[in-house]
Amino acid sequence: MTDQPRAVLARRPSELTVAWAQRVLDRHVPGAAVAGVDVLSVDVGTTTRVRLAVDHDGPPALPRRWFVKLPSLSWRARWITALPRLLQAEARFYGEVARALPVPIPPFLAAQSRRGWGATVVLADVTEGGAVAGAPADALSAEQAVLVIEQLARLHARLWNAASLDREYDWLAGPVRRSEDRLGSALAVPLMRHGLRRAGSAVPTALHAPALGYARRRRQVMRFLADGPRTLVHHDVHPGNLFWQKSEPGLLDWHLVRIGEGIGDVAYLLATSLTPETRRAHEVRLLARYQQVLAEHGVRDLDGEVLRCRYRAHLVYPFEAMVLTLAVGGMMTLENTLELIRRAAAAAADHDSFAAGPLGPRARPTRPRSTNSS
Predict the structure, then answer these.
(1) CA 164 → CA 172, 220, 231, distances in Å?
(2) What CATH class has 13-129?
(3) What are the residue ranges of CATH 3.90.1200 in the chain?
(4) How far apart are CA 359 and CA 308, in angstroms?
(5) Is 132-372 CATH 3.90.1200?
(6) Global pTM?
(7) Were both Cys, which of 131, 139, 163, 254 would link to 245 (CB 3.0–4.6 Å)?
């Protein structure tokens, strides 16, 4: 994808013209014509997200509302996402991986990337089909959380410890992800300090020292969190990256997709998507449901106690991700970021999660053993 002619690449919303839309349309229905393009909205965060109304004479099944992801217009967000090439990874994900997954995702129209240029991803806007896109600070009900947990279990079971991970998806754990991890570790301490200062009362004072200790030894913690069954993970399952088609949830925003441990997605979801009260009341049942659906799809003999220990350890990452989002700025509104920080901080505090990994006296270097009969 990186060496194709510059057909659909764009850097700014102003470049999403009729001629640009025609090049996208030509990939699907040669001979159909685009009559007009209207920009409906522009949202700047980790990427620039543009909603378009595209007037064309193609078949009714071809979407008229498009969702386009471009490099972020926020220099802070662009700087933090450029080196690990997050948008390029998402472009490759939609082009090579997405169709094989057993979870609802937006229909894919086009994607292209070029080294030194960036990437452009063109999807159908899920709202055209009546779906509702989530907002970052939405609070899921327990019933909604069950539905997302079931989708995550189906996603994780599909490639659980599969040999094809190294053969077909090695790029998801290759140099790009290693660069991202190195960058995250190098910046962890200054960004954690700055984020904690900005967060104020959203983070209990008792979490400050453990969080800074985590930042200082982040690389060691990341190795610990990677020491589990490997599968394809979304790695950013917060409410703003969900959409709902009636009662069925789907997943948006795959720029952090990678090979990792599935329970990390579950920890991220419960820490960011549920109020502390809802999470406390239902997380045991939700973890049990995750294990049950995995078993239904061939992942058996999973140790429930070890799974809960790994869940506890993985709760440090959503906390870090939200605090660093605040520290960098320009990636999410302040109000939404503080709300997600409050939720993630409560989860980490409830489970004493900074003591659950290699930093604490109760570290357990165990992994959830399982087999996959599929």
Answers:
(1) 12, 27, 10
(2) alpha beta
(3) 132-372
(4) 18
(5) yes
(6) 0.91
(7) 131
